[in-house]
Amino acid sequence: MILGVDIGGTNICFGLAENGKLVRLESVPSFFREATLEDTLTYLSEQIGRFVPAGLERIGIGVPSVVDLKQGVVYDTVNIPSWREVPLKAYLEDRFHIPVAINNDANCFTMGAYGMYPAGEKPEVLVGITLGTGVGIGIVDRGRLFCGATCGAGELGSLPYDGGMLEDACSKKFYTTRGWEGPVAARCAREGDPAALAFFEELGRNLGELLCTVLYAYDPSHIAFGGGGAWNYPLFCASMEAYAHDHFPYRKALERLSVDVFTGNEIPVLGATLI
């Protein structure tokens, strides 16, 4: 068995996988923001200890941060103030005497999404896009995760756009700047509120720009949306697709592109078992 761990700002999810399938999935509250580094590592170790059966092969962990993949060092983790430079791989391997792999959470999501496609229908090139507080992007090329030299291959959200960054116009930040809370905006749009519908139309155009950027950068056969913002996909997909059709010049790439949505919290956990 392999243990996958997805560390988020609100919850930490754990899953045991056997033969590429999750057989157990649980979550616990994440660290207090005021917790010290020692506190967080002790808590994480205690929780992992509850999921370590005899014969566990390895542990895979997804974190919302930049990672030194070889050394397993985590830098400047989003929503965990005490995690500035954490040798997480070495710490956990010393604690449990099991191989540990660490990767970015968007990469884990993308590997998990790849694992959800049936055998024989695996994407040739899959780009995963997570819509949350920011925008995360992962790339799986012919079954192999592509991370770049410093685990930053998918940071397209940092590209300039409309006086800021592209992720500012595609993530939770955009809701905030327009005076909306995500669930409220979605409910109002589904009830036909004109302001909410206009908001999601604008969001869709912004995501259309992101979609075009992803197509230029990686030429994917498949795109998988995830994260909290993906729950609203039906509200922004039409304007996103319209923008892409109006602005992306290579029609054949759009015609063959498959766009899917994976919103289950098990997806990044499964991906962590596959890194």
- Going by CATH, the homologous superfamily of the largest domain would be ATPase, nucleotide binding domain
Strand content: 25-35%
CATH class of the largest domain: Alpha Beta
Mean pLDDT: 95
| Strand segment tally | 15
* Biggest sheet details: 5 strands, mixed
Shape annotation:
globular
How many distinct domains?
A: 2
Structural class by SSE content: alpha/beta
Tally of separate helices: 9
Fraction of residues in H or I helices: 25-40%
Q: Which stretches of 5+ consecutive residues score pLDDT under 50? A: none
Alpha carbon gyration radius:
19 Å
Distance separating the two termini = 14 Å
Could you tell me the CATH topology label of the largest domain.
Answer: Nucleotidyltransferase, domain 5
Name a few traits of the molecule:
single chain; 275 residues; alpha/beta; Nucleotidyltransferase, domain 5; 2 domains; 5-stranded mixed β-sheet; 15 strands; 26% strand; globular
